[in-house]
Predict the structure.
Amino acid sequence: MLSKQKMLAAVLSTAVIAFAATTGSALAQKKYDTGASDTEIKLGNIMPYSGPASAYGVIGKIEETYFKMINEQGGINGRKITFISYDDGYSPPKAVEQARKLVESDEVLFLFGPLGTPSNSAIQKYLNSKKVPQIFVATGATKFGDYKNFPWTMGWQPAYQSEGRIYAKYLLKEKPGAKVGILYQNDDFGKDLLKGLKDGLGDKAASMIVAEESYEVTEPSIDSHIVKIKASGADVYFSMTTPKFSAQSIKKLAELEWKPLYFQSNVGASVGSVLQPAGFENSQGILSAAYAKDGADSQWDNDEGMKKFYAFLAKYAPDANKADGSVVFGYGQAQTVVQVLKQAGDNLTRENIMKQATSLKDFTPDTLLPGVKINTSATDFYPIEQLQMMRFKGKKWDLFGDTISGELSN
Amino acid sequence: MSAIQEVVTEAPAVEAVPKRAMTLGYGTSLAMLLVLILVPLFVKNFVIFQLTMLLIYALAVLALNILTGGSGQFSLGQSAFYAVGAYTSAILMEHADINYALTLPVAGLVCFIFGFLFGQPALRLSGVYLALATFALATAMPQLLKLGVFEKWTGGVQGLVVTKPDAPFGLPMSQDMWLYYFTLAVSIAIYIFSVNLLKSRSGRAFMAIRDNEIAASAMGIDVALYKTLAFGVSAGITGVAGGLGAIAVQFVAPDGYTITLAISLFLGMVVGGVGWLPGSIVGSAFIIFVPNIAEGISKGLSGAVFGVLLFLVIFLVPHGARQVAVVAQHWLGKLKNG
């Protein structure tokens, strides 16, 4: 009898030890989903290398170069990054084909930084049904932070609506009695920004906004819209435009000798590609908001982060134009995904990638403005939400005030 | 006569035996069909999806082929009809909850009417002028789809997401495979319809107009009617292709239907062989796979590589796949006899 009890005890204890041992090893065990192994992590990406938006293709090239640098430095936890980037020519059907190729044929771990609202909208449903993360999409459309319906999709840059709200906050504080005239691009970008501004102005939106004009990207000139806005008697002017039109708008206002309080959307606020061509003398006093440092701005020459950025460009991408916002963008985005992979450690499952992407705490890529931090959580799928107001003076942007948060409630 | 029309009329095989040259023999057709039925059983879902797109674009190229190869009219505006078809299907499926299969005839009909009406003013134009008029249609379409007035239905710039259908009757088949066979069935039906159309009285009328409009009208053919009819049929088939495309891609947005699509379809028709219906699938394969090959060769210069490949094709086989098929047939015949 006794021996039987002893036996039982022995069996039990061995079972307990065995159990403890297995769970222990399970914790330390490496876990992989398709696309990850002891030596490699495969990332998929889709970019418009050809077609109407091919200027943004630079982002993909910079990211590829950044991963090359990481690989030369030994990779992430000993694993090399394989970055597979395909061209979709900014066409949604092609994006679907490429996304399926990445997931089903190349078998990547996840999709990182696909560009454009139409392309990302087209692949969102597919990726979510396959439970493949679609993280840090390169578009500011607000819909890419909908964690309830699309738990596998998240953005990176500030949502355009956030930017709009920040301008509204500033305006309500500085010039509550303003008469606002708005020029916006007739697409998701312009409309989102406009919505943010209106939401921010709240009840006062109807009384403050005196003119709203939209233009198509295909229009050769936006002059007539600006003349109309001026005629409405507005004393505050919003240019919710992309670079080509931002420069046109600045020039036209100078030509009309109209000097309202001028707000320029962040996308069209690049010193190198907008303000310089439009003429610095015409750009004085323009207001905008930023989250990243401008690569062409001399005030960052001695900045620690930007020194790293410039060193990277000098060594790996000597041809890249540092004044191009896309170069700064690609660098910051690639750095963020590397952080996610570092956090994920040896647990490279799709679920854990998503978990790590949603638990970034005060992460600061080299190229973001001081004070702007990336924070995400299970219910916050908008990594960058802070912007800082800035005013153009001389040949550079003067940042002023604190970083303002334009958080969107879901 | 404009230069483009001459190219069409100069094509040798069509003049010799128009009816036969438009199609394939029974044996070849059956072999082709067998391949199309069997291939999906052995490949990944992703490849099945690509094959579905292949069939869909082949339909759109076929539609253009009826218009250009059949009636000798030009169109750079097929993307507009494709877009209307795609949106019709998408809106019916998502807003009216209509079964996907039923949306296709509606898409076809809407596009037929649209094409027929567009054909009326286009009657006054021929050759390059007609090509320009249709070009205008293609450039206008994406903007029309963005208009605020229609936004309630079209979703504006954001587009519409479409739900992919499951296989019916509980068939043990993936969504992709089911959609492929569904598309294949539709494609075969339309192919047979097109072949018969071109063999029929209407088809002969199309070709008579293509070869010599004045002679055709002297023979008592109602030129205006048949020209617009060709436009309508072509638009209708393109519309069905668009509808299928919307279901396969699960998404419609104005940016998917730009002038680039129209040019691709035109390219597909030329590569496949103008006026040779089976060439449509070859042309479709060209516009789907060759850009991928070009990208594989050089990412930065994919457009240039594509251009070089296209140039080679046009230079070596100016009549496209039809020329290859004729040569192959010639050699096969020699082998049999010798």
